[in-house]
From TrEMBL:
One GO MF term attached to the UniProt entry: hydrolase activity
Keywords from the named record: Hydrolase
Name the UniProt record assigns to this protein: Os07g0606800 protein
A Pfam family that the UniProt record links to this protein: Abhydrolase_3
Similarity section: Belongs to the 'GDXG' lipolytic enzyme family.
Keyword Hydrolase: yes
Entries under Gene3D superfamilies matching the protein: alpha/beta hydrolase
Domain Alpha/beta hydrolase fold-3: 97-309
Domain of life: Eukaryota
InterPro entries for the chain: AB_hydrolase_3, AB_hydrolase_fold, Carboxylest/Gibb_receptor, Lipase_GDXG_HIS_AS
Amino acid sequence: MAAMAAAAVPSDRPPLPWRARLLVGAVSVLHSASLRRDGTVNRFLLSLFDRVVPPNPAPDAAGVASSDHAVSDDLRVRMFFPGAAARDGGGDHLPVVVYFHGGGFVFHSVASAQFDALCRRFASAIPAVVASVDFRLAPEHGFPAPYDDGKAALRWVLAGAGGALPSPPATVFVAGDSAGGNVAHHVVARTPSSVSGLIALQPFFAGETPTASEQRLRDAPFGSPERISWLWRAFLPPGATRDHEAANVPAALRRDAERRRAFPPTMVCVGGWDAHQDRQRDYADALRAAGGAEEVVVAEFPDAIHAFYIFDDLADSKRLLTEVTAFVNRRRLLVLHILELAVADITVCFTVSLARLHSHNFSFDLI
């Protein structure tokens, strides 16, 4: 696995290729320009630059097919089916990853090109069926709308995804990046026993007291304190501070021992150029406290900026796919082994019961 210890920032600027650097700069300018002082968002401006892609019912070059599904009038999920699952229109025996995209609770959708592509890569690499959730966005729909949407989408998947899956899945993981990582945490906190594992990619947390990394990396990509403050004001309830349980998750976990103990195995991805890294490590520590989660894996990427995984040509993006694949498949095999043992126990009990019935000369007439 990746290094487990906190990594020092190696230089005064992140090691990004020029194309990625230009894209980060353009996205930062666009996001800032779309956030109005009155707390609203210029959705029209965003729509001009947020490239969206339709689903593809026929498998693409990597063998992944996708389709959009309505969970309710206000909620849709884009499903990604890899390989044989794409050809057969199902996903029996594959793990399912319920995914929540990033964007500060305010930007993007499941159709945004970078998140569509990211889910395709996960579907192909693991392989897994990926269910990307199009949760409602702030400020039009603030706390707790994304969490409610996430819980509804997870229940829909667990029930068989409205027929999109051949049967209710045996192993379901919940994952998300940035603000989507925050949503993933809160969805799992509401339904922990239904989930085989949580994957939090640079989850977006906050607090009223700035951390060392937030102060040190205020000028790093996507680290602007002013923009981060705007996003939290747009999402949190009126009058709430960033110590609210939705934002300051490590503190909330330490206050709620019962919730901490209920968490499934968790993977936390941390980037050395991410302003939020201190809170992400603190989150992992809070989950570990008092045996909070069965397993907590921290995957460190010392050279990674926030949202590095949307750049598929970066070496760290490729390594992240390997890390996530290993985590999912290790947990999936363990869950399937436990299920096999349970079935074996039931079979033994049934056989013993039948033997006892026969030993007492009981007989049954079939009608």
